[in-house]
Known about the structure:
about 100 residues, 6 helices, about 60% helix
Amino acid sequence: MTMHDxxxxxxxxxxxxxxxxxxxxxxxxxxxxCPDCAHTLDELRAVVIAAQSVTxxxxxxxxxxxxxxxxxxxxxxxxxxxxxxxxxxxxRLRGSSSPRPAFC
Length: 104
């Protein structure tokens, strides 16, 4: 890690106001002298603005079943038939006969 990386690693915390007063002053002083970091901070601000404009959406209830089917197909397995819930798809992908929830 270079000294410059130390500053860029702090920019997100700086933007989110998650630094101590001393750290915040140090980053602000660095930004005043480093056009690269100032540019990176501007880019981070643009990302935040863009993310705030995204409308949240609820994924379809069968999303995991469709993902599991595509994964199984890509691995050369017989595609998993869509099911209600995820237990069959998850157990097939993990090579297990016992159903497990998707968060395991």
